[in-house]
């Protein structure tokens, strides 16, 4: 992995050198994603008419890479686009350029240059306050005040308290109204999660995006595409061996066998409460150990995106750390999205609740009843395990879930992937992507990514909204 | 009556006790002497004493409390007083028997549900029947004599949020679902529901059968509604609907009061409301004691409407006395004032105010006979003798400004002639045109001009950009002509008028407004609206002078036959001042209360809604809306307005509208002008237009062919001398000088000269000034 980092910097330098001398070809890796072969994505785009119409209307027919990758799941894409569009373009408490700037701030937290560039462009198109793009110190204090919750939400959402909310809302020159704050929080969570998806499925930067000038020019230099080169290099290294790994043939069968067994066991599993509790704790603790080996606490390399990041050293820390006073577990039954989060968010920023609700629901209920080559499989158990595992890492516990299932269903390499994608997505590599579920289709892995993204977004939102609720009462 | 005597044994007062942890649900035992509180970390029984709660029993025992104690719901059996059931968040259904001799009262444990159990419900008459509804979408019916469920009902849809046995039908129960549906089941038929209907958008959190009416079911949902359904008919019918301000977590019918129900909300709002379903706009009573959301409500006794118990996330358990409830209707504001777009004014006030002091009132009435100016809007509600509601009757008057009296197109000509389209600074042009429109009684146009002036005035003008900041220091800047002084003068004048109108509260409130304006910074923004109002003044006056309207209450609700209730002794002596939030600059009149001529209990408040945009916006911001307005005018057929605005705004708006449309408007307007023979205006418009196609109208057919007056040959040259006969061609017949300006000549003898000279001449003589003897005519 250290090698990777080296290569990373290496490519970057190389490309930077090149960029000085000549204009280099931008299509370093072709297709929308560097993880997924192009033909898989292009082939699978039977979008529903309404989605196509929506894209035509709102995005003037241009389908960016992100949309193409998500297009593997057209049903979800529709819910996603609607929500995304509503957040950024429709009536809302925040002015348009604020929204894009917040998107930039959120994406920059994960050094997701793809999203940053995209929104820097959109920001420029609005045509006001373009000097904000020179960095955080050029934007109004009011926006800078968001930095604190931005970094907390991005990396350790459980730390957010009503004091943070109070500091933002308390009357003063740079105060936020609750409605604006909710809008901002939803935007932040949305783009943090989206960054996870972008890295998790290796979405390539859009070629058009890089053809820019002015402020955007130095923000999104071709060198940014260097990221993909690394992935490519990784890919080349890793390519070939996983699929031909001899002992993976039975992997899928084993997983299905475990699912079946679990279903049967459920009937007569009378695990005591203490046991359930310990299982959750165990899973939580174990998630600590699931660290992508070899990653030293790296210093963030200075990148053009860094200008939108405040306190870059603040990164993910495990929810449950050894030998420390851990924050109390978040009981999902006490503050759930359906009952509480929805009402609050919808009250302060009308209609967004329905759109988010729809998006979460679609993501959670999405299934094609097959696993790899097997058809007619009920995957709900697996989906729930993925969703709850993400929440578990964020310290959110469901009383009615047996966390032993997670252990049975999710293999270690998958856990590594999940943890990386949700907690520090910028470290995701193609090798991680390739190392789990060898026989599964790419679209299924994108499905996993969607679940991770939504679970992460919901976790962040729950923490943030709970803090707001506490502030209000 | 027998019931009532039994009930009267219960007594108590509003009281509360602290719990150790937030409560999720509460339930009372049948004889109303004990209450059980359940939550994630609490499970206790309290006794209800005369003057407080007394903890009787803690059911949460054991070294390490298991998740089975983490209750989402609890119910006390209504037949068997030792029997309780709880729903646990981990999916367990537990029954408890208080008669067990040991400390652990747990009797049975059912772990059949896979997800959280949201609700348990005992059968109202059958001792051993228990029903549960869970997040996993199943409902299960348990026979407490058996170890397992006797039947399982699958809703075939999402999570079950509530299950309730019908009070009257032995076999029926209702279940509400997260997807908005409500299903009715027969307990004997687990294979299929009897009926299903969609009750709400989003989850239905709760439902409750009416204790007396067989077919009535109340449901509450996340969509903030409480609905009452009539199930007795073939098609389920919604008969009442109450809109609350937050998602509804619980709903409970009030005993002995057929139309009353209590609700509490899941989020944000902590109060408990009791509604009369027939009066859905304002709660009948509210209990405001809790500091966090109320999670459980229950009427203490099933035949006593005066005691309500509630548990809350703020870790308190309350007993509310109905007589201590606050009655929002007493504090509701019965007055309203609103200006219409076209300068109309609507005013509603308590009827007593409109009629009360006879001395002034009579004067008012006498001075305004005839009803042609009043446009009363009625709604009349038959008073229901059983309704305990305070009847409030308000009178609503609408003053309409005179509609454009001039029939025909006079206004068009007048406007065309009086509008100034160029030659002055932008603001003055707008101002002038606004005045013109106002004089012609075209208020909308007038307002439009004023708005345009405000929108597009230069930032250097203090009215826009600095307004906001200056307000903070208490110094109100002048907004062009609408200074605050002028405004208050106008208001005061109006007040005089109003006094005759006998509208006391309005007067005092406006006065109050005058007094406040030095201190309340937020009011600056309201001035635009008052600016509009000022425009209407003339109309108000003229209306009142020439066409006098009667000012009597148009709308009366008969008072009830019996006196209004007097339960509440502690009326709020002083009305609560309405809080002014910094972002909503209401012109609040609440402090004027004491100076009100008629003493009232309620707050009288006149609010002027705030301006929707901040004064910092660049003029560009308004372009879309101005564009829309222009199109509106053009579509209305008032192309005059469209073109005039277009010209006056010039570059500010031109780019926003496509050339073709502009050209079309210009052409139509010019055509109209020419039909009315307004040549000069038409020419000016052509000159000021920026469309190529319009401009060249002035270039067409501008050549004039003339013949030399001496040799009668065509003059081909430019200049004044004919190149054939070398004489000056156009010599004035009066002064014998060459005419270089307006030339007039007689078509009979072709002599002529300077216009003024010829005019002058022909006043004195009928003959041609050249002496040819022709009798020239000048028309």
Automatic annotation (TrEMBL), chain A:
Coiled coil: none annotated. Keywords: Cytoplasm, Oxidoreductase. One of its GO terms (biological process) is cellular response to L-leucine. It catalyses: a hydroperoxide + L-cysteinyl-[protein] = S-hydroxy-L-cysteinyl-[protein] + an alcohol. It holds the Pfam family PA26. GO terms for cellular component: cytoplasm; nucleus. One of its GO terms (molecular function) is oxidoreductase activity, acting on peroxide as acceptor. It is found in: Cytoplasm. It comes from the Eukaryota. Belongs to the sestrin family. This is Sestrin 3.
Automatic annotation (TrEMBL), chain B:
One of its GO terms (biological process) is positive regulation of TORC1 signaling. GO terms for molecular function: ubiquitin protein ligase activity; zinc ion binding. It is found in: Lysosome membrane. One of its GO terms (cellular component) is lysosomal membrane. Residues 570-594 are annotated as: Disordered. Pathway: Protein modification; protein ubiquitination. WD repeats lie at residues 110-152, 197-239. It is an enzyme of class 2 (transferase). Its main location: membrane. It catalyses: S-ubiquitinyl-[E2 ubiquitin-conjugating enzyme]-L-cysteine + [acceptor protein]-L-lysine = [E2 ubiquitin-conjugating enzyme]-L-cysteine + N(6)-ubiquitinyl-[acceptor protein]-L-lysine. Belongs to the WD repeat WDR24 family. Catalytic component of the GATOR2 complex, a multiprotein complex that acts as an activator of the amino acid-sensing branch of the mTORC1 signaling pathway. The GATOR2 complex indirectly activates mTORC1 through the inhibition of the GATOR1 subcomplex. GATOR2 probably acts as an E3 ubiquitin-protein ligase toward GATOR1. In the presence of abundant amino acids, the GATOR2 complex mediates ubiquitination of the NPRL2 core component of the GATOR1 complex, leading to GATOR1 inactivation. In the absence of amino acids, GATOR2 is inhibited, activating the GATOR1 complex. It comes from the Eukaryota. The keyword tRNA-binding does not apply. Keywords: Autophagy, Lysosome, Membrane, Metal-binding, Repeat, Transferase, Ubl conjugation pathway, WD repeat, Zinc, Zinc-finger. This is GATOR2 complex protein WDR24. The keyword Transferase applies. Its EC number is 2.3.2.27.
